[in-house]
Amino acid sequence: MDTRLSEIKLRIARLRDALRNAGAHAILVPSADPHLSEYLPRRWQAREVLSGFTGSMGTLVVTLDDAQLFADSRYWTQAERELAGSGIALFKIPSGASVQHISWLAERLQPGQTLVVDGQVLGLALAQQLRSAMGAKGVRIDTTRDLIDHAWDERPGLPDAPIYEHAAPQATIGRADKLRQVREAMTRHGVSHHLISSVDDVAWLFNLRGSDVSYNPVFLAHALLDANGATLFVQPGKIDAALA
What we know:
Layout: H1 3-21, E1 26-29, H2 46-51, E2 59-63, E3 67-72, H3 76-83, E4 89-93, H4 100-108, E5 114-116, H5 124-137, E6 140-142, H6 148-151, E7 164-165, H7 175-188, E8 194-196, H8 199-206, E9 208-209, E10 222-225, E11 230-233
Helix pairs in contact: 4-5
């Protein structure tokens, strides 16, 4: 057995041990981060690390006795090749928007059992769909645990690359003007506060750039705007005092 397959099988075994220790019965690992980005920092590439499937989209589901990788037709050939010998089966779905992994889980989990999914990477729409399907089956959803650390020993921490200013002439609209435009839109819609979590929007709005995601000049952050101010939430030490 090659080293790559050995590592995948070991990680899946560790993940199942973590499920047992948590009193849980399945884990859902989407291709997502806390900002629901398309391109992910290494820390949140758990689906790829655990399964060996390197496609940009897909969902991994692991139970105590089964493992399935849900991928659409763009990736079937690639997934079959990369999953071969791993013990993880490919579940072919018609499109990336399919939620067949939810119905698959609902069919297999029993009332009183627990599904784990990291709430940090769970979007509202998926959360509502899971709550509806699992609730109807009497399955508990635990969003408070991140069990990936138990399976991925060398998992990176949060990116710590510095944030830098995107200034004129490349930035044709100043930060103050952009914030004013957003506040005007908030007023028109009767909104007092606006939370922004998409990293490209945050980078554009504040005329800031970073390197937290490979090949993308963005940084991990959330922003909260109100009528009088704007708060940028970033990891400590990433913004130089001159930019603050």
